[in-house]
């Protein structure tokens, strides 16, 4: 055993993670005492990454929720919620379900992102922060553009319209009415053909 003096003793811990035991004996006038010892646990291994679930993408409802599942070896999870990049909420005790309620249909418009990082008992952070976002959007889309792509009037019993929208992603529902026919609205593509 190497000799050491009274006071502090700080050996470099450059080896593997695990329990390191310091055993100390005292020698006086040629007699050696029994050993006193203490254990230091070295842990530099990060916990597993947090997994997020729940709502994502465009939303127009007044409330959404996310789920938080800690990774292996995680002791606690820190969550932060940002609205268009600005921090609005944070907690160091995050888990289970994280609800989010929109109270102002105008000011709350935009992107809301949950970021979660796991920590183990030693303070190591998970390698990759988990993120999940919703886009709160209650603004009605503009009326779609509708352009007839075939000649009119015509004797042909079929016609096609080209549909367009500024919304992305945008979907269409089409309803056809005429002298002797009326259909209910149903999903249709950007190129809408209907036999007459």
General description of the model:
- The mean pLDDT is about 85.
- A hairpin with a 2-residue loop joins strand 2 and strand 3.
- With about 200 residues, the chain is mostly beta strands.
- A five-stranded mixed beta sheet has the order 6-12-11-8-9, with no helix packed on it. Strands 5-7-10 form a three-stranded antiparallel beta sheet, with no helix packed on it. The protein has a three-stranded antiparallel beta sheet with strand order 13-14-17, with no helix packed on it.
- The protein is rod-shaped.
- Helix content is about 0%, strand content about 45%.
- The chain contains no helices and 17 strands.
Taking all residues together, what is the mean pLDDT?
A: 85
Helix content: under 10%
Q: Roughly how many Å apart are the termini?
A: 99 Å
Task: Please work out how many helical segments DSSP would assign.
Answer: 0
- Which geometry do the CA atoms define? rod-shaped
Strand order of the largest sheet: 6-12-11-8-9
Q: Give the low-confidence spans.
A: none
The radius of gyration over CA amounts to 33 Å
Sketch the topology as an H/E string, one letter per element.
Answer: EEEEEEEEEEEEEEEEE
- Backbone structural class: mainly beta
Largest sheet: 5 strands, mixed
**Count of distinct strands:** 17
Q: Percent of residues in beta strands?
A: over 45%
């Amino acid at each position: 055993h190497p000799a050491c003096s009274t006071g502090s003793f700080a050996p470099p811990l450059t080896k593997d993670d695990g329990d390191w035991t310091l055993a100390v004996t005292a020698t006086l006038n040629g007699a050696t005492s029994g050993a006193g010892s203490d254990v230091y646990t070295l842990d530099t291994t990060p916990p597993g990454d947090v997994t997020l679930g729940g709502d994502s993408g465009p939303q127009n409802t007044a409330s959404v929720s996310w789920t938080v599942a800690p990774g292996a070896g995680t002791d606690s999870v820190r969550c932060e919620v940002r609205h268009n990049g600005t921090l609005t909420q944070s907690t160091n005790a995050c888990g289970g379900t994280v609800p989010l309620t929109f109270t102002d249909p105008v000011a709350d418009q935009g992107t809301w992102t949950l970021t979660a990082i796991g920590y183990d008992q030693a303070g190591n952070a998970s390698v990759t922060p988990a993120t999940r976002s919703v886009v709160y959007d209650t603004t009605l889309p503009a009326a779609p553009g509708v352009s007839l792509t075939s000649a009119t009037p015509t004797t042909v019993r079929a016609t096609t319209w080209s549909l367009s929208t500024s919304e992305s992603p945008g979907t269409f529902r089409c309803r056809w009415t005429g002298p002797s026919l009326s259909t209910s609205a149903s999903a249709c593509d950007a190129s809408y053909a209907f036999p007459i």
